[in-house]
Amino acid sequence: MYKNYTKKIGMAEPLYRKIMLIMRLTTVILIASLLQVSATGFAQKISLRQNDVTLESVLKEIRKQSGYDYYYGNKVISKTQKVTVTLANASVDEALERILSGLPLTYEIEGKMILIKRKEESFFDRIISKFQAVDVKGKVVDSLGNGLAGANVALKGAKGSATNTDNNGDFLLKNVAPDATLVVSYLGYVTKEVKAKDEFNYIQLQQSTSKLDEIQIQAYGKTSKRLSVGTSTTVKSDDIERQLINNPILALRAKVPNLVITQANGLPGSEITMQLRGQNSMGAWSARSEPLIVLDGVPFENTMSTKDGNYGAVGDRMSALSLIDPNTIEQIDVLADADATAIYGSRGGNGVVMITTKKGKAGPAQVSVNLASGYSQVPGKSKLKLMNTQQYLELRNEALANDGLTPQIADPDGDGYAPDLLLWDQNRYTDWQKELIGGNPRWQQASLSVTGGTNLMRYLISGNYKSDGVPYPSSFQGAKASENKLASGHINLSGNSADGKFTAGVDLTYSYNDRSGTQTDLTKPAMLLPPNAPSIYSENGELNWEPNLQANRATWRNPYSAMLNITDAAANTIIANVNTGYRITPELQIKISSAFTTMVQNQFAATPLAGLDPFSNKDDYYGKSQRINNTNNSFTLDPNITYQKQLAGGELNAIAGITYQGQTSKSETLQAGGYTDDALLKDLTKASAPFGGSPYSAYNRTSEYKYLRVFSRLNYVLADKYIANFSFSRDGSSRFGPKNKYGNYWSTGLGWIYSNEAIVKEKLPFLSYGKVRMSYGTTGQDGIGNYQYLEQYSSSPQNTYDGTFVLDGQGVINPYFKWENVKKLDIGFDFGFFSDAIVASATYWRTRTSDQLIPITTASTTGAGQYYLNLDGGTQNYGWEFSVNSENINNKTFRWSSSANLGLQNDKLLKLSPYTVLNYLYSSYYIHKGIDPIGKTYTKLIGVPAYIGIDPETGLFQFLNAEGQPGNSQEMDAYGAPVKINPLTLGLTNTFSVGNFTLITDLQFKKQRGRGYIVDFFPPGRLDMPAAYGNMPEIFTDRWRKPGDDAKFQKVSTNIYDVTDGWNGFELSDANYVDASYIRLSNAVFSYSLPKKLIDKLKVRSASINITGQNLFTITPYKFGDPETLNYYALPMLRSFTAGFNLNF
């Protein structure tokens, strides 16, 4: 019809022109449209081949090839969604259909924008899915097939649809859609997504290698750096075991920012003190500011008395942790802020060090054997450059001449007594450092452990033997070489019922420590004996006393005599821990743990006749003995209840409980004398009283401490982004009077993992992790010793009146003092870059202390001694902490990783009480100078005399007097100059691996000032009798000798008051506070792992050999011995070398 109409003759011309116009326009439009379609189709052709990659990376590739951008809402696309696709010249539509097939996603194209969105179910789909829903059950296990209790199993994108695995790792989720995705997560493991099905055999999780996912132990639970809002540092067993240490605390050196660890000397088991984030209190007792130590959940005392029951004397203390084998430890966690420590209440005021021992693991029996042997020595850098014989004799003659004295030997108690100049060989030279502390004691260690079990019962049994010594001379004339031996065993048993509801575990540790040989530090005579001192042995092979026959007296104290003193000390330690638990519901569990710790130390010490000076002791030439028994017992009971629930799109964890602790310390000492035969020293019946009275004296002391606490903690993590913590505790202590026994403490912590926000993922793809955190809370402190609120009395056998024992008052009753109050604030930032290849953190911290417990000394006429009160004053410690862990290089042939930490610490006085005694505060400098001390440092600025040089005419030291003018030591201003000490700690660990070879190095740096010239025993130029100490460092050759001399040190003297007092002033002055900073290579381990072919031949799981060095070298401007001990009269830290091997079957 259309055809006929158009061909009809006589059609109207206007109509014809219209039709032709329309046809031309249509043709133009069609051609343009075809050209556009052709161009667009060419630009949208997609070709790619991707295998098991993230959906997000595939969409990015489409954007590159097509020019189309894309948008998706929050939580629409997950980084864990993986796809596999192959496309060749496909259109955008075809590509998107292929990529999104099988995923609950759809798309729309609007212009040049692709909108990705969730696929909406139809009404019928929802009905069908209800009938198709399944109950999903399964078991979450680790790489060895062991069930993971408490793992989180959640439905992806479904709020509130989640559960936790039971103690066997089993879980059940009901009414799950068949196409749903399960998200399975567990602390320390990589999160995994799996498609839902009605029954899983196993869902296996792989342990995470990221530092953010390392397990961190906290009070009554675990967390990770990723989810923690507190400030803590973790040191793992690998870092502990590779170090040549006899105390696990030493493994923390240079690993924890702002943790200062000080070892009294290099003797095995010597006292170790810790201070975390500075000194919080000004009190004499609490000045130690030591963190609480918790061993497997049980508070553990760091130090214990070694003799006489004198608990306060540093020289009589040892580190109780040296009785714990470091090889039994799984990890050590140091908790610093309020969020981490407040649940410990008053005991956590100075921080908490949590030590966790190794536990049994399910699986076939695994046997591990470690053997190592080597030696130790005093590092050359720690030895002093002392005067030789010529320099020493010149010093002595010059001192006598300055005093106008003539050397004499007739009167040992008179001026000018000089056996070193008149009787001793003037050409003799002995290097006493080499003779007395130049030995190479052996270092040996052997350990064996067996672990294994099933999902119902697991076990670990280990044993260890270790021996090390001191660099003193070897055995002679029956004397024992000093040696420290430790044998220990550790057993862990844990199990659960078949349904996983009931759990139980036992930890048992036993150690036996034997310390034999001399316990006298020979470092002091090594530094001070004159180089021309007599030989050790006389011509007949006995100890040489080099007698002065004119006075019938020995001219020196033979240093080997101390080695003849008998010392047999043994310590037995038992730590037993039992814990049980029952899961009432999947969310609710009750737990009870109890622990008993006992440390018993028995010591026998004797001074035999063989070690006595037969000339000077002729009137009291009798042997003596001493028996000391110290016992420390502790019992802890800890019931608690925990609740874990998936709630409102997040996870809630709650705990509440009670802690009771009782401690008892006992010390007994029995002394006997009058022995005439060394062979009878251990027989009490052979003691005698040659001067009348009793041959025996006895002392004893008993102390008790009780502690009770109620606590609770709430933790909530929402959407893996928002974290909130709250804890509360109420503490009771027997160290306070009835009205102030209890204190309340709390903390709160908040965190935001902003890297999980969609916009951060899009804009900052290099930032794999980012978190900001804050914590604030209160803790307390009761570290003042027992019974201080009561009036105390003491007695001794020597304290009698008319034949009757009397009691001495030891203090003033004060039942009103109360807990110290500590407030802590932390603000931190944690980062992970490039898939956590670099993990870093920065923390600002602040600690404020008020109501400080201060001992006030009363007038001697009162006979009361001292008493405690709460200081109406306040202090503040503050600073920064930084840490970085990085994988610098990681490829098939070479791997290099690093770990570093930096600590900066400062303090200031916030408030000053009128009761403050100036000696408690270094800020007394400000008060003396009329400067307001508020806002100034109270520990790092010391007011001391200001040294200005030597008077060239008199040769005496000069100091500024109160008027700012030069004066001598009697006129000096005691607070003439400030000395600033700004400590800084830095630790750096590097691990290098090439093939089967690995090298690990630990560097530590500490910025500090310390006293250099220790002359308080006697001034240079004097011979100190009867020990005959007199030698000095060679630096004292730069001294004043005649008027006009420009020298570093004043003139020397044997005993002139002006000179000796000048030396005392110099020692106190700012000139004696020198730079004692140091960089130390504290540890290096070079190991080789045997190749697989050889391992298979040996039929072992793994094997390695290693060479280890400890304290290898030190760079320091300090010229007075070991910068760590800052005391050249104490044995420095030893350098050790060992070679060993490790076998695992």
UniProtKB/TrEMBL annotation:
Alphabetical UniProt keywords: Cell outer membrane, Ion transport, Iron, Iron transport, Membrane, TonB box, Transmembrane, Transmembrane beta strand, Transport
Domain Secretin/TonB short N-terminal, chain residue ranges per copy: 68-119
SMART domains, alphabetized: STN
Protein's GO biological process: iron ion transport
InterPro entries xref list: Beta-barrel_TonB, Beta-barrel_TonB_sf, CarboxyPept-like_regulatory, Plug_dom, Plug_dom_sf, Secretin/TonB_short_N, TonB-dep_OMP_SusC/RagA, TonB-dep_OMP_SusC/RagA_CS
Its membrane topology: Multi-pass membrane protein
SUPFAM superfamilies documented for this protein: Carboxypeptidase regulatory domain-like, Porins
PROSITE patterns in the record: TONB_DEPENDENT_REC_3
Domain of life per record: Bacteria
Compartments reported by the entry: Cell outer membrane
GO cellular component: cell outer membrane
Family membership: Belongs to the TonB-dependent receptor family.
Name of the protein in its database record: SusC/RagA family TonB-linked outer membrane protein
